[in-house]
Every structure is written in C-alpha cells, then in structure tokens.
Amino acid sequence: MDNKFKCPECGHPQYCPCDSCKVHFPAPEGVKYWEWQSNEESIACGNCGVIKHVDEWMDLSVEYYENIRARKLIEMESNDVEAKLSSVQVSDSSK
Ligand SMILES: [Zn+2]
Ligand SMILES: [Zn+2]
C-alpha cells in the first residue's frame, strides 16, 4: 500500500521515517520525511514543521486518496466519452 499524502499547509509529500516505511516507501530525493514527536502521537511535517495529531494526518491521507479516486473516476468517465466518440468516428469512416 502506498501511504503518501500531502501536508495541508505547504503541500509537501509526507513520508514516514520508520524503518519499515523507509524500506518500502523511500522518499524521493529532495523530499523530507515527517518527524514523529516525542509522544509518538503527533507528526511534524518535514518541510514546514506544522504539527498535527496522527489521527488528523490519517484523515488527511484518506481525503487525499478519496480525491485521487474521484479524479480517476472523472478521468475514466471522460475516457469513456472519448472512446464512444472515437468509435462513432470509426463506424462513420467504414461507411
Ligand atoms: Zn512507518
Ligand atoms: Zn508542511
């Protein structure tokens, strides 16, 4: 599972710095890992330092994915329309 999501303040992609995530989801060059706070219940954005509760970040993550999913659905629908249009063109040219 890809767990990327973005900071609501600065838009910086967020990557978990724990050992297992670093192995499975290494941050691309130039992207900073988020920072766990000492209570391990809060995470600071690695870029702008905004601190939010873990639950809030997870909510953001869900929102982020819902947006992506929604965008993909829209893309799929518009592809559908294009496919229909091009199939109309194909049948027209076969006349
Ligand atoms: Zn992790
Ligand atoms: Zn940030």
Give descriptors for this structure.
2 helices, single chain, binds zinc ion, three-stranded antiparallel beta sheet, 95 residues
The count of strands amounts to: 5
Enumerate the strands of the largest sheet in spatial order, edge to edge or round the barrel. Answer: 3-4-5
Q: What percent of residues are in strands?
A: 5-15%
- What characterizes the major β-sheet? 3 strands, antiparallel
What is the alpha-carbon Rg in Å? 20 Å
Q: How far is it from the N-terminal to the C-terminal residue, by CA?
A: 49 Å
Describe the structure.
This protein has a 3-stranded antiparallel beta sheet. Strands 1-2 form a two-stranded antiparallel ribbon. A hairpin with a 6-residue loop joins strand 1 (5-6) and strand 2. The chain is elongated. The protein is an alpha+beta fold and 95 residues long. The protein starts with a strand and ends with a helix. The protein has helices at residues 19-24, 54-93, and strands at residues 5-6, 13-14, 35-36, 42-44, 51-53. It has one domain (5-90). The structure holds zinc ion (2 copies).
What's the arrangement of secondary structure elements?
Blueprint: E1 5-6, E2 13-14, H1 19-24, E3 35-36, E4 42-44, E5 51-53, H2 54-93
The structure holds zinc ion (2 copies).
Q: Could you give a short description of this structure?
A:
The protein is of the alpha+beta class and 95 residues long.
